[in-house]
Design brief:
By secondary structure, this protein is an alpha+beta fold. The chain contains 3 helices and 5 strands. It has a 3-stranded mixed beta sheet. The protein has a two-stranded antiparallel ribbon with strand order 2-3. Strand 2 and strand 3 form a beta hairpin. The longest helix has 9 residues.
Length: 74
């Protein structure tokens, strides 16, 4: 979930490769929430792989692993 400018919810499923879907087929394992600008900084490699600006619900190990690897996976 992205907050701020361009706020939106993006549902991603990974049956074989990650893909954006309109609705999830089951409950999410983790939900990440971030400010849109902070999220963009992580995507572009402008932020260190830290937890600043992100909150999560669900599996903490999976969630923080995703945050740490955003610039490599998106």
């Amino acid at each position: 979930m992205l907050n701020g400018v361009g706020a939106q919810t993006v549902n991603i499923e990974i049956p074989d490769r990650a893909r954006i879907v309109a609705a999830l087929s089951e409950a999410p394992q983790v939900t990440l929430t971030a400010d849109t600008c902070e999220f963009a900084r992580h995507l572009g490699g402008r932020a260190s792989a830290n937890r600043n600006g992100f909150t999560l619900d669900g599996d903490p190990d999976l969630g923080w692993k995703i945050v740490a690897n955003l610039r490599f996976t998106m």
